[in-house]
Each structure stands twice: as structure tokens, then as C-alpha cells.
Design brief:
Helix content is 25%, strand content 28%. It is an alpha+beta fold. It has four domains: 77 residues, no CATH class; 176 residues, no CATH class; 196 residues, 3-Layer(aba) Sandwich (Rossmann fold), CATH 3.40.50.1110; 85 residues, no CATH class. The strands form eight sheets. It has a six-stranded mixed sheet, with no helix packed on it. Strands 8, 9, 10, 11, 22 and 23 form a six-stranded mixed sheet that branches. It has a six-stranded antiparallel β-barrel with strand order 26-28-31-30-29-33. A hairpin with a 6-residue loop joins strand 4 and strand 5. The protein is flat and about 110 Å long. GO terms for molecular function: hydrolase activity, acting on ester bonds.
Length: 595
């Protein structure tokens, strides 16, 4: 009886398998008709008629004029004008209008009316033809490296905080995957300027391509019809139809075991057409069959203001006081140049300045300014009546004029200091705007934001603190601020601690040796810096002591822990010879790191 029951059960199961196979075959036939049918056909299914993909594409093309018309209707009056003048005449202030393009690569240009005679240009929309036809420097997504492109995928050491990034030839990051699996970039959500129609399951050949900058984009992932799934704009924003926080992407915490990040094309039944995956198939970034870019996006990273640089430029910004400026001798900057690869070396030294003044000149804690009448005039200069920090002042023995470009109250201009021999507090500061415009209120203690050489992307040589060595905590704060102002994921900097010297007269004993408060402060700063920043620190006092000339005076200086007087012009400043020793040490640190 049991055997009979088993046979009947098997027979029933076989029948079910046969029925399932028949249904699968029928479903497969329906899919074939939907995929391969002509542009006029509907395929009858259990849920009703379904248009073929070819018909869906035809209907989309037919609907495009209406969609464009709907979008245009959202403008001031729904028109695209032949000239800017005609657009101005038909709109009110602050209304937007389109103008016919000046180039065949553009579909239209967007303006905002400012006044009856002035319009502000906002953007140029690329034509669909320009985007789809540009095939220059195109590479198929195969190995994960876009050869012949300015943008490529690279794997990073986990100590950088990232495991994978999309970077350009200068190392700038457009998209990055952190070790926790989150994607970092400057995302533009649901931006209507990108054609993101629903993508069909017959998509193939998803490719990454570089675009002509005239289109408004530098790089995009497109399908074979030129439709954009993900794009990088000229201003560094990543634009796409993003899904945030979706559960469709596997986001197990990523760790150091990651390897082999590649870009792959996926079968449509997976729900994706393209993705960036690791060696075990985890998706960091994907484009779904609906044309949406899906990932674990972290869109609230405050320090990502554009394209984030992974690495600084090789150009050097030398930040400091007279030990950096040092104009009376052949400087260490000049002697450094032939010892390293060719690059710009910026002299950021002003004699006599404290660490606070130096940091303020480079945006590491801005000077707060108050101007006469709390107003920046429509043109010309205005006197500065109060400053929290004197960023351009030097000791009373110096004279002349120093200037610093920057922004006050959103207005670009120049801060000028006329030095007074009566002392820093008597220096006269003025702010002069670059271009005439409307007068603007400037609140008391408004920050003056300086223009920084390299805009925060240069490698830094930081040497400050000698002129306020009696305030070690302030020096620490300013060094931290200078390191933090560098706009890169990887920081490249060297810190030189202040030297000690003293009376250079032969036979005289230094007043800065072991046991003095100056010595104790210097050593305390050296110890803190090496604990905080490790081998990025050059303790210049100890480095120069080894180059003593063996004389009684030099040996006495070494015994007291100060720079030998044969290497000093005076109490503290270096000779050409000691500058050479400094240059060679800095060159060694740069070259061994391949900076």
C-alpha cells in the first residue's frame, strides 16, 4: 500500500513538472515575442496586451516632443527665443527663459532675467545628437580599467579610508567607495538635464566614455542609444537618477579583504544592466534596468565641495616666517629646486610673523575684519578699523606695503597693509574691491577669506612658531589648522619645528640653551609634533647640530642644544650653507615618499 502511494505521488509530481515546463515554455515564447516583435505589435499575455520593446521605443520617440513641450511650459512663457534680447522683453525679473543655441552641439541655453537689459547665463543643454555621437576615447567596460580615458577605476590602500575610486589623470576623485561600503561624491539628484528614460531589457554594450566639454559633461556611462545612466559634469557634480538607501544593493561592511574591483555588464534578469562589483560579487554601484543609479550613497559629506582630490599636487607651498623668506642668503627653497622633480615652489614666508598670523594668511583660521561704517563701498577702498589678527604685519623694523588677495563679505578684493615703524598696531589696513558693484553691508568681525596658492591642493612645507615660541598651545593649534586646510583625502605635508640659537658673538654663551624657558618650550613642541605627526616632522635644531665645524664655540652650542653659530647669521637666521643642509633634508623626505 505504501509503495502504491509513493508511485501515485511520483506520478502526480511528474505531472506538475510537466505542467511547469509547459508554462515556462509558454512564458519564454511570450518573452521572445516581446523582445523581437515589430514596432506596431502588442503581445497578448494573461495580464493583457503588452507592447513589444520596439513599439515601446517608437511610442517614446513619439512622446518626446510633448515631453519637451511640457518642460518648456514650466518656463516663463514656454518659448525658446531667437535672441537674449527677445527673451528679456518677454519676461519679468528673476524669470528664466531659453535661447536658441549658438552651437549645433547644444539644444538650448538657459538664462535668468536680472533687469530689462541684463540676463545671467545659467547653463547650456547638450543636444542628444552631440552626446550620443561623441565616441572619442571610448572603452568597453571589461577589466575595470578604462584605458585611453582620462577617468579610470583604481584600487586604494585601506589606510586611505577608501577601497576603490574613479579618478582622473591628476588623481582627482569623482566617485569613491569607502571601506564601509558607502559611495562618496557630489551628487545631483533627479536633474532634468540628463535624458533618463526608462531603459529596456534589450540594452547592451553599456560603455564609459569621455565627452567633449562643450556638452557640459566630461564623462558618462551610456547605452548604445546614447542615453545617459550616470554622468560627471564640468563642475565635478555626479548626476544620475539616484535611488538612496535602497535595499536592492548588497552592502555588507566592506573590509581589507576587498580585491579585484571591476565594472561588469549584467544580465537584465538580475535587475541591473551594469555594475561595479568586488571579487565576491558585491555591488558598490549599479545601474538598474529602470535607468536608475543605485548605491550606498553618502551625500552629506561636508568636505566634498567638488571633485575631491585623493592626492595633492606636487607643487610646494612653503608656509612660514623669515626662516622661509630668508632673502639675504641663497634660500633653502632655491637650493631645494634642483634636488627634486620640476615643480612650482611658492614662497609663503613673511619675516617676524607668529604662527597665528601665518595661518591666517593661508585660510587656517581667518582674520576677522571690521571696516569703516560697516559697509564695502560700490568701488574703491575702505579702511579696516579692527582686525582679530594682523595677517600682513611684521616687526617695526620692517617697512613698506604688503597685499593679500581674498574675499570679504562675498566681495573679491585686496587687503593692503601699509607698515608703520611705530609697531604692528599702527599699521594701516585697507580693503579694495576688484570690481565696482553695489555697496554691501559688512558685519563687524567679518572673516577675510584669503586666496590660497594652489587653492589648498599644494603639498605643504609648514615652518612656523619661532616668533611666538612662548605660546606653544597656539602653535599646536595653528599647525593642526594648516594641515586641516589641505583639501585632499591624502594629506601631503612636512612640519619643521623652530630652531634655537642665541648670541653669535665668539666666546659668548647662548641664552637659549638647556634649562631656559625657550629651550623647554622648543623641546615640548618637538615632542608633541613627533607624537602627533610622526616622521612628517623635521626637528631642524637637532638636524643642524651635526654640521658643527668642531670649533669650541660650535661644540659649546651643541652641548647646550642649539644650532651651531657657524651656521647662523645672527641669533637665529641661517647662512647659505645651513640652508643647503635644510634643502637636502627636505628633498630626502620628498623623494623617499615619491611626492
Amino acid at each position: 500500500m505504501a509503495d502504491q502511494t509513493s508511485i501515485e505521488a511520483l506520478a502526480s509530481y511528474a505531472g506538475e513538472l510537466s505542467e511547469a515546463a509547459a508554462k515556462a515554455q509558454a512564458a519564454s515564447e511570450l518573452q521572445r515575442k516581446i523582445l523581437n516583435g515589430d514596432a506596431q505589435t502588442d503581445v497578448l499575455t494573461e495580464s493583457g496586451p503588452v507592447p513589444t520593446f520596439a513599439k515601446q521605443a517608437r511610442l517614446y520617440q513619439e512622446a518626446m516632443p510633448d515631453a519637451v513641450a511640457d518642460l518648456s511650459a514650466q518656463m516663463a512663457d514656454g518659448k525658446v527665443y531667437a535672441t537674449v534680447a527677445l527673451g528679456l522683453a518677454a519676461t519679468a525679473n528673476n524669470q528664466s527663459f531659453y535661447v536658441e543655441p549658438a552651437s549645433p552641439t547644444m539644444s538650448r541655453s538657459l538664462y535668468v532675467r536680472v533687469s530689462a537689459t541684463e540676463a545671467r547665463h545659467v547653463s547650456d543643454d547638450p543636444s542628444l545628437g552631440a552626446v550620443s555621437e561623441l565616441g572619442t576615447r571610448t572603452a568597453a567596460v571589461e577589466s575595470g580599467t578604462f584605458s585611453e580615458l582620462e577617468l579610470r577605476f583604481i584600487r586604494l590602500g585601506v589606510e586611505s579610508g577608501y577601497v576603490w575610486a574613479l579618478v582622473d589623470s591628476a588623481g582627482r576623485m569623482a566617485l569613491g567607495c569607502k571601506i564601509d561600503g558607502s559611495m562618496v561624491g557630489k551628487f545631483v539628484l533627479r536633474d532634468g538635464t540628463v535624458n533618463r528614460t526608462t531603459l529596456n531589457l534589450d540594452l547592451d554594450g553599456f560603455i564609459a566614455k569621455a565627452l567633449d566639454p562643450e556638452t557640459g559633461y566630461v564623462w558618462a556611462v551610456t547605452d548604445t542609444q546614447g542615453r545617459i545612466g550616470l554622468a560627471l559634469r564640468l563642475d565635478g557634480t555626479v548626476t544620475g537618477k539616484f535611488l538612496l538607501g535602497t535595499g536592492a544593493v548588497l552592502r555588507a561592511a566592506l573590509g581589507a579583504d576587498l580585491s579585484g574591483y571591476i565594472a561588469v555588464q549584467l544580465s537584465p534578469e538580475s535587475g541591473y544592466v551594469w555594475a561595479v562589483v568586488d571579487s565576491v560579487g558585491r555591488i558598490a554601484l549599479g545601474i538598474t534596468t529602470a535607468g536608475k543609479t543605485v548605491g550606498n550613497f553618502d551625500v552629506h559629506i561636508p568636505d566634498v565641495t567638488g571633485i575631491e582630490y585623493l592626492k595633492p599636487l606636487v607643487d610646494l607651498l612653503c608656509v612660514g616666517d623669515s626662516l622661509t623668506a630668508n632673502s639675504s642668503q641663497v634660500t633653502w627653497r632655491e637650493q631645494l629646486a634642483p634636488l627634486i622633480s620640476a615643480r612650482t615652489i611658492v614662497n609663503g614666508g613673511i619675516g617676524g610673523q607668529t604662527s597665528r598670523q601665518i595661518a591666517a594668511r593661508f585660510g587656517a583660521g581667518c582674520a576677522l575684519l571690521t571696516v569703516t561704517g560697516n559697509q564695502i563701498p560700490a568701488s574703491g577702498s575702505v579702511a579696516v578699523t579692527a582686525l582679530s589678527t594682523l595677517p600682513l604685519s611684521t616687526p617695526a623694523t620692517n617697512s613698506g606695503t604688503f597685499t593679500l588677495k581674498g574675499t570679504l563679505g562675498g566681495i573679491q578684493g585686496t587687503l593692503t597693509c601699509e607698515h608703520s615703524e611705530a609697531g604692528d598696531e599702527s599699521d594701516a589696513y585697507t580693503f579694495t574691491r576688484d570690481a565696482a558693484g553695489e555697496a554691501r553691508y559688512s558685519a563687524p568681525r567679518s572673516p577675510f577669506v584669503p586666496d590660497v596658492p594652489g587653492e589648498g591642493f599644494y603639498t605643504q612645507i609648514i615652518w612656523m612658531g619661532r616668533n611666538n615660541l612662548d605660546n606653544v598651545e597656539q602653535i599646536k593649534s595653528d599647525i593642526r589648522a594648516m594641515v586641516g586646510v589641505q583639501k585632499t583625502a591624502e594629506k601631503r605635508y612636512l612640519i619643521i619645528t623652530p630652531p634655537l640659537g642665541g648670541n653669535p658673538t665668539p666666546g659668548a654663551s647662548t641664552g637659549e640653551g638647556v634649562g631656559t624657558s625657550t629651550y623647554n618650550n622648543c623641546v615640548a613642541l618637538e615632542d608633541w609634533a613627533t607624537t602627533e605627526y610622526g616622521d612628517r616632522v623635521i626637528k631642524i635644531r637637532e638636524w643642524l647640530m651635526q654640521f658643527n665645524n668642531g670649533s669650541a664655540d660650535d661644540l659649546d652650542d651643541v652641548a647646550k642644544g642649539v644650532v651651531p653659530r657657524s651656521l647662523r647669521l645672527d641669533i637665529i637666521h641661517n647662512t647659505t650653507i645651513s640652508n643647503g643642509h635644510i634643502a637636502r633634508r627636505i628633498a630626502y623626505e620628498i623623494n623617499r615618499r615619491s611626492w
